[in-house]
Design goal:
four-stranded antiparallel beta sheet; about 190 residues; 3 helices; mainly beta; six-stranded antiparallel beta sheet; globular
Amino acid sequence: MVLSDKTIKEYLDNGALIIDPLDPKDIQPASVDLHLDNKILVFRNSTEPFIDLKKDLPDLTEEHIIKKNQPFILHPGEFILASTIERIKIPTDIVARLEGKSSLGRVGLLIHSTAGYVDPGWDGKLTLELTNVSRLPITLYYGMRIGQISFLKLTTHVIREYGSPELGSRYKGQKDPTASKAHLDFDKQIKHTE
C-alpha cells in the first residue's frame, strides 16, 4: 500500500519518518520531492584500464562542488554520483522508492540506474546515479528538484533493519554521495569459502 500525503504527514508529525530539511510544498499526493545537494562525484579518466569490482578504487572519482546559481554541465552519456539535500530516516514498517521527476526524464536525465530502493531503517542522504541519455548537455543546479520518494507500508515491522550488523549494510548514515563499496562483497565471499 502506497502512503498518501495524509499518511506521510502523520508519519512526519509523529517523528517515525524524518525528511530534513522539508518544505511542506514538496509533499505531493503520494510522494515527497527531493533536491540536489552541491557535492557530486565525477568519474575521472583514471589510470585504471577498467573498473575491477574486487578492488577499492578510491581514485575512480573526484569530488566537485556545484556553486550556487552556476550550473554543472552533464554531457551526453556522462554518469556522476550526487546526493539529496535531504536526510531521510525510514521507520521499520516502511520501504521507500526513489524515482525521477517526469519533467527531467523528458529531457533525458535519469537519477538512478538500480539504486531506487530504500530499505526499512535507512538513515542518511540518498546517493543519486545521474546519467544524461539525451544528445544535448543538461544543466544541474544546486537545490533543484531532482527526484521524488514514495513510501510503501510493510505487512509488519522488519526483524532486521538496514544497518543491522549481521546484514553488512554499507551506506547507512552517509552524508555525501558515496562511491561503490562492491569490493566488500568479494571480501565477504573469501571469508565464507575459507
